[in-house]
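Bumping with the actual sequence this time:
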Amino acid sequence: MAKRTAPKVTATTRLGRDVDLQTQVRRDKRGRRIDDAYVDRLLTAARKPGRPSLAGDGPSPAIAFRVPSELRQRAEEVAAREGKTVSELAREALEARVEAS
């Protein structure tokens, strides 16, 4: 999968008109008014970190591979029985195979 490159934003990048939330009424898709508190909640949620890194010093490297649907289904059943995710199950299997070499 190709990595996406974020667009470069500089001091001269046109971002569009500013909105004065004190005088202009803007609403989200659900009809809720967008005010300063709404924006603060969005910013707080956006700043929350995701899953903890497995690498410890940055984002965890990812490995993606395809499997037959029957194997995926069996992996989901084993993972559920053991209280794990399929990712945890796959990681354990890969670690065991690499250590055995």
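The tokens above came from a reply further down the thread. The helical segments are 36-47, 69-82, 86-100.
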